[in-house]
Design goal:
CATH topology: TIM Barrel
Strand content: 5-15%
Radius of gyration: 17 Å
Number of strands: 8
CATH superfamily: Aldolase class I
CATH class: Alpha Beta
Number of helices: 12
Order of helices and strands: HEHEHHEHHEHEHEHEHEHH
Largest sheet: 8 strands, parallel, barrel
Number of domains: 1
Helix content: 40-55%
Strand order of the largest sheet: 1-2-3-4-5-6-7-8
């Protein structure tokens, strides 16, 4: 049983999946951010691989990508960050990336290096399931779970195709549009959760727009196996760039509040 599977075996709570952009605002600080999220209680750490054209992301994460790229972040930097975090914790680590980054590195090389660094799962945000066969096979060779997105517009037929390829958990996009905090969890998001549940026994994690304890409580009561929070975390990072101690404290406190709402 892998580290991701072990997280979702816990009953009665939703796993908290915390996202930060790797290399934002620099490598050293990025490691401190990851450790603060873990110390606050993050169950799965999701690290975004910065990209110049992150089409799925809103302005908050785009700015974080820009900061990371300006600091010179490369795949080598990403794997170094993962190794440093892995030395500190056994919490599962998932990379969220775009296909071009993997392709330029070489698919086999990227997944081999990810495995050697300690990565447990990889989500390729812009990879259609119809073109995922080679990547999924290589991921399996290196015991890395291929994570897939499912949106409100995903057809039942395509959903079944995704379920056949996915491992670890499914990332359910709770809104139409890009990442970013919202005021409420929409009824459509909960309807998506219920619809996907009829297609698979894989754990289901809701993301995009989740930012408050009330959101987490709503998702948990609806039966979500996990909640994914990105923009709200990155916003805390951005607000405290001038004071790293305050940043770490704010991140730990935020995650602790969200975990309480998840029943942990």
């Amino acid at each position: 049983m892998g580290r991701i599977d072990a997280v979702f075996r816990k009953k009665g709570t939703s796993a908290f999946i915390g996202f930060a952009v790797a290399g934002d605002p620099d490598q050293k600080t990025s490691v401190r951010i990851a450790r603060a999220l873990i110390d606050g209680g993050t169950d799965i750490l999701e690290l975004g691989v910065p990209f110049s054209d992150p089409v799925a992301d809103g302005p908050t994460i785009q700015r974080a990508d820009d900061r990371a790229l300006a600091a010179g972040t490369t795949p080598d930097t990403i794997f170094s960050i993962v190794r440093e975090v892995r030395a500190h914790s056994t919490v599962p680590i998932v990379l969220l990336t775009y296909y071009n980054t993997i392709y330029r590195r070489g698919i086999e090389r990227f997944y081999r290096e990810a495995h050697e660094a300690g990565v447990d799962g990889i989500l390729v945000a812009d990879m259609p399931v119809e073109e995922s066969k080679e990547v999924v096979e290589i991921a399996g060779n290196y015991k890395i779970d291929p994570i897939f997105l499912i949106t409100q517009t995903t057809s039942d037929e395509r959903m079944d195709a995704i379920v056949r390829q996915a491992r670890g958990y499914l990332y359910l996009v709770s809104v139409l549009g890009v990442t970013g905090a919202r005021k409420t969890v929409s009824p459509e998001a909960l309807a998506l959760l219920n619809r996907v549940r009829t297609h698979t026994t894989l754990p289901l994690a809701l993301g995009f727009g989740i930012s408050t304890p009330a959101h987490v409580t709503t998702c948990t009561k609806a039966g979500a196996d996990g909640v994914i929070v990105g923009s709200a975390i990155v916003d805390i990072v951005e607000k405290h760039l001038g004071d790293l101690n305050a940043m770490e404290a704010a991140l730990r406190q935020y995650v602790a509040r969200m975990k309480t709402a998840a029943g942990s």
